[in-house]
Amino acid sequence: MQLEEPLVSIIIPVYNRAAVIERALQSVHEQTYKTLEVIVIDDCSTDATQEIVKGFADKRIVYYRLKKNSGAATARNNGIRLARGSYISFLDSDDVLEPQFVEKSLAKIENSSPDCGFVWTGCRRVKNEHGELSIKEEIWRPQIIESPYITFLHGLHIGIGCGLTFKSEVFHRSKFYFDEELKAAEDTDFFLRVSQSYSFDVVPDCLITIHQEAEDRLSLSYEKNAKAYEKIISKHGHKIENYKSLRFKYNYKGMWYNLAAGCRSSALKYFFKLLKVEPFNPKIWLVLLSYFLLGKELAKRLHLKHSK
Question: Domain spanning 8-213: which superfamily?
Fold first, then answer.
């Protein structure tokens, strides 16, 4: 007797994406794996997003509109609570899945070790910078440093929109959700918490296309990032303190985000912590002095240019 195929829930948070949401839905509609439900969480769009989603000819689509604009973390959490699938995937509303995304992701996670809680795929990044298109394919395959958690603390090069599929137990049994108090870096915080309980695996194919515009959804709000990393450091400081490289990394992030946000007093707090780690590192002094001597906007542009 053939076993019933597991249901996979695909969660799509959306806000004012009338111009591109149909493209995302079409890519889900064309999946080779058909046992799906598609949960669109509308964060109070004011354009034609609702009409387009409801008018799309696929009965597997569930549309849910939040009562007030609440941000990405809240939208995703609402989608998770509505999801009935054994597996949960995430898709940003302006991105596109390859037809075999679900099929290959499901095959990987079902054939990985029992402690594997999630997998991700390679991605194709399409950037539109002032009319010039660039395309880059990338697959992040991290080398494990002690554990998944310590590995992610040292470097995390994925976001929730990078072709992620989770076992539903990660959310429904283990109660891992996105921190709705964070208005930035909620992906980083989420992965650092989940990786303490679950391992991961990687699908070695580029199965999602991520579209980025010049003024992209990833554009930084420095004040929000500064506050987010202050909370992340407080949550994981007990581990960060054990590694010199991590003390430098997270205190440098804290200093730079606060400088870029114009919060000099908070930036100095991280600066003095950095001096205890690497007092003669010229990078620390150059960044600090550039913001104090050149002003926030010029220093920010120079820093971003030389960080690429």
Answer: Spore Coat Polysaccharide Biosynthesis Protein SpsA; Chain A (3.90.550.10)
